Every structure is written in C-alpha cells, then in structure tokens.
Amino acid sequence: MTIKRNISYPVIAAFIVFSSIFSMPASAYTQQDLHDINSKISALRAEIAEYEQQAAALAEQASNITNAIAMLQNEQATIKTQIALKEAEHEQLVADIETVATRINNNSETIGFIIAQYYYNSKVSTIERLASSESFASFVDSEVNLSGVSDTLSEIIEENRNLKDQLEIKKHNAELILADLDTQKNQLVQKEIEQANLLAQTRANEATFQAMKAETTSQKSALEEEQQKILQDLARQYNATNITAGDPSKGGYPYSGQCPAAKLNGTQYGDRWGMYICECVSYAAWKVYSTYGYMPNWAGRGNANQWLANARAAGYTVTSTPKAGAVGISMAGVWGHAVWVEAVSGNRVYISQYNARNAATGYLPGQYSEQWVDQGMYTYIYFGG
Question: Which domain holds residue 49?
C-alpha cells in the first residue's frame, strides 16, 4: 500500500505564507493588503483541503487494513480448525492402523496353529484316525472338524489379505493428511506474517495521519488568529466605537454558559442549525430563530462566508443596506464573520456578535460583545422579509 509523502512541501509553503502574513504590522493593513491576505489564505485553505483529503485517504486505508486483518484472523481461525480436524483424523487412522495390525498378527498366529493341526492330521491315515477314535461318531466329528479347519484357514488367509490392503490404504491416507497438515501449518505461518506486516503498516499510517491532522489543526488555529486580526483591523478602518460587553444576558444565546467551547479541534458541540456553539454563526443562527421562528440548517456549509450564497439559494434578500433584525456578513478572512444588527443610525450599525476578539472580550475567543461600526463593513441578509 502506497502512502503519500508530500507533507513537507505544503508545510514549507504554509510557513512562507504565515511568515509573510505575520510580518506585516496590523496598523499597516489597507484594503489591498486585506485582499492580498485573503488571496494567500484562500491558497492556504486549498492546501489544508489537500491535507484533509490525504488524511481521509489514510483513514480509509487504515479502515481497509483493519478489515483485512479481521479477515486474516478469520482465515487463521479456519485453518487452525482444519488443522485440528486433520490431526484428529490422523490420530484415528493411527489407531485404526494399530487395530488392523493387531488383527493381522492374531490371524497370523491362528493360521500357524491351524496349519500345524492340519499338517498333523494329514499325516495320519483315515484307518488310523478311525482306530484311534473313541467311537464312530467321534471319528465323524473329527473328520468334519478337519474339513472345517481347512475352510477356516482359507477365510482367515483371505481376511488377512484384505486387512493388509486396508492397512496400506490407511497408511497412505495418513501420509496425505500429514502432508496436508504441513501445508496448512505453513499457510497459517504466512497469514500470521501477513497480519504482522499489516499491523505494522497500520501503525505507520496512523502515525502519518495523526501528524497530518496535528499539522492541519495547527494551521487552522494560526488562520483563526489571522482571521481575528483582520476583523479587528477592519473594525478600526470602519470606525468601530463603543465596544462593550453589552447585554448581560448575551443576546439570550442559550449556549452562553458553555462558552468558550473547545475551539476548532473537532470536539465542539454542534447547535441545532449545524453550527459550532460559541461561534459567530451559531449566535447569528440563534438570533434569526428566536426572532423569526425559523432558521435553515446549513451544516456542512455554515462558515460565515458561505451564508450569502446559502441565503441567495434559499430566496432570502441579500443587500448592502442594513436594517435592525438582519444578519451582517463579512467575507474577510478564512471563514468570514457573522453579526446581528441591533440598530441602524445613518450609515452606522449597532451589532451584537460572538467570537470577535476585542477589548470588551479581553481578546478571548467565544465571547459576546456589542459595538457600533460603519455599515459598509458588512453585507446583510434579511431573514424576516
């Protein structure tokens, strides 16, 4: 099984990209800078997608290997059962051979005795046998017995001949069974070697997969850090003011007691709309649902920068004009950002949000905040018509 080994090149590329990103002071950001950074991040997202594809391929390979090992174990168990059966058959044949050999030996002794008796009787004449008999009746019995001895001798000789033929067949079958046993034992050894190799390969694949997963997670964390820097810089450019922790009930968000959740490591809980809790999109989804009684489930395409396309496809109004009760979407950064419009005043909008690191949140992830910002920072979705 071949495993891709091209991990190092994307890592180097990622390092170069991050070096170029982080070397730029936040205060130096311009719209063109943000465009360039977004382009670089998009390229890096493509590399991360390749990482994830490779990781998925390795996971599938590991699953296939696991199945192969299970099949090998079944085959081994079958072979072991067959070996045990053959050994039992061989033991039975050995016992049969011993029984036949004993029977042949006993018959041989009987044949010797009968021949000796017959030989002795054949040396005595009929007149002598009659004279030596106690009576004529005993003479007749003796003659009959002598004739019967001859018949018995023929039967025993025939039986011995048959037994010897059986003995040869059983010995031949026993030799075949032993040869078959050797073959099956060799097969078992090969299966065990194959299993050991597969297990070793599985461990190697798993180590590679874990390394790729760790690298991908690290890159995502770095991208999220950059995402927040971009959002903060945009907020400065769009004259964000009055940043505050705002509503003590945190917009009524039902998951606020669990925030910040485990961040971008695959262990966050999902909300009922397919978003990770304590993220901006989960909060925005909650506000839509609590205000209008319905929010689509966009699991699998729930990044903030996917919401505009989702909304258009669902028939919702997407506009540059804000209004209270709309969701604002920024396309900046890797995942974009979603906010809830609380109020509009001139060209300014008052927003509430989750997971925007700012002074009000102590620059921590997964926290609630409110602020004023110029309306041009967002594109707006009207979920309420």
Answer: 8-222
Q: What value, to the nearest 5°, has the Cα angle with vertex 384 and ends 380 and 385?
A: 85
For residue 351, give the CATH number of its domain.
3.90.1720.10
Domain count, the chain: 2
Whether residue 31 is found in the same domain as residue 88: yes
> What is the per-residue burial (b if ≥16 Cβ within 10 Å, else e) of 126-153?
eeeeeeeeeeeeebeebeeeeeebeeeb
pLDDT tens series, the chain, 385 aa: 333 334 343 433 443 333 333 333 334 445 555 556 556 656 665 666 666 666 666 666 656 666 766 776 776 777 677 677 767 777 776 777 777 778 777 767 776 666 666 555 555 555 555 555 555 455 445 555 555 555 666 777 777 677 777 778 877 777 787 777 777 777 777 877 877 777 677 667 667 767 776 777 677 677 777 777 877 777 777 777 788 988 899 999 999 888 876 554 445 678 889 888 999 999 999 999 999 999 999 988 889 999 999 999 999 999 999 999 999 999 887 789 999 999 999 999 999 999 988 888 888 888 999 999 999 999 999 998 7
